[in-house]
Every structure is written in C-alpha cells, then in structure tokens.
C-alpha cells in the first residue's frame, strides 16, 4: 500500500506541474522554483510533514520535498544554534542531495559530449 500512496501523491504533484506547463505561460524553471518555494512554505508551517508521513517518497523525492527538507533543516538548526541556524540549517539538511546532483552533473558532462542546437 505504501507504493500506491507514493505513486498517487508523486503522480499528482507531477500532474499539477504538467498542467501548469500546458495551460499557463510559466516557464518550466519558474514552475520548478515555485515547487521548491511551496515546499519551504508548507514545510515551515508544518503542513507538509503530514503529506510526507502519508506518502513517503512520493512526497519527499519531488522538488516540493527538497523545499520541505530545507525548511525542516532550518527549523532544527535554529532550535539548536539560534540565529546562526537560519543560514546553516538548510544547507546541512540538504547537503547529500546537493552533492549527489553535482557529482551526477559532472559524470554526465564527462560521459556525453555537448553539441550546439544549430
């Protein structure tokens, strides 16, 4: 049943993104940033935690989950370190994902050769 929940919630998040791409003039970059910001806002207010507990990876893997992770890290760091936690918490909480993205980008740039579109 966990797989079904993850599929439905993750699929719903992707469906919303696809509808925004198809029906609005928003660029994909703006939609992606909006997803991260929505995750931060919902994570900061505590709402996204319930969705993450219900759907598991279906809610934590998409970009909204990255925003939620940032907000959660800032909350924990502020509780532990005070004001300085505002600046360090998000980076500490998401360091693994950021590092993985950088390494994957590096490997792709070494394996594949970029070509001009023209």
> Largest beta sheet, briefly?
none
Order of helices and strands: HHHHHH
Fraction of residues in helix: over 70%
Output the radius of gyration.
Answer: 17 Å
Number of strands: 0
Shape descriptor reads globular
The stretches of 5 or more residues where confidence is low (pLDDT under 50) are: none
Label the structural class: mainly alpha
The tally of structural domains comes to: 1
**Beta strand %:** under 5%
Distance between the termini: 48 Å
Number of helices: 6
Average pLDDT works out at: 90
Observed structural traits:
118 residues, mainly alpha, single chain, 6 helices
Fold blueprint:
Elements: H1 2-23, H2 28-45, H3 47-55, H4 57-60, H5 63-81, H6 85-111
Walk me through the structure.
- It is a single chain.
- With 118 residues, the chain is mostly helical.
- It has one domain (2-111).
- It has six helices and no strands.
- The radius of gyration is 17 Å and the shape is globular.
- The model has no long low-confidence stretch (mean pLDDT 90).
Task: Please outline what is shown here.
The protein has 118 residues and is an all-alpha fold. The chain contains 6 helices and no strands.
